[in-house]
Amino acid sequence: xxxGNSGVGKTSLLYQFTEGCFNSQFTSTVGIDFKEKRLxxxxxxxxxxxxxHLQLWDTAGQEKFRSLTxxxxxxxxxxxxxxxxxxxxxxxxxxxxxxxxxTHAYCESPDIILVGNKVDLTEQHxxxxxxxxxxxxxxG
Length: 140
Description:
- The strands form two sheets. This protein has a three-stranded parallel sheet, with helices on both faces.
- It has a single domain (about 1-140), classed as P-loop containing nucleotide triphosphate hydrolases (Rossmann fold, 3-Layer(aba) Sandwich), CATH 3.40.50.
- Helices cover about 30% and strands about 25% of the residues.
- The radius of gyration is 15 Å and the shape is globular.
- It contains five helices and five strands, in the order E-H-E-E-H-E-H-H-E-H.
- By secondary structure, the protein is an alpha/beta fold.
- Pfam families: Ras.
- Keywords: GTP-binding, Nucleotide-binding.
- GO terms for molecular function: GTP binding; GTPase activity.
- InterPro entries: P-loop_NTPase, Rab, Small_GTP-bd, Small_GTPase.
């Protein structure tokens, strides 16, 4: 499940992963949406391959949808916390998103990935790689 402020690029990130291309049109997610991806995972130890079916949930970042989206945290086994490298507030709000998922997720120890998005806009970055790494380390 992708979490983060509105406009950080959660939908674009998931679209790129599932469809293999970038959609330049910005449309704010209303409530919750999902995408699917099937892939084959090869175990690095045994070399055995296994099919994996991913359901990737895309959440609205606006405050007014929080009560709706937190209901979907229940059965989620992994979270992608997304912030915009060109938006300081989206980075600062990651702590709030983390608290929210810890409060509402039923999975005892979900996998959590921190993603700094819009890496291509290097001239506009306000969050350094060092700060992002430090935040990831502190969040666990």
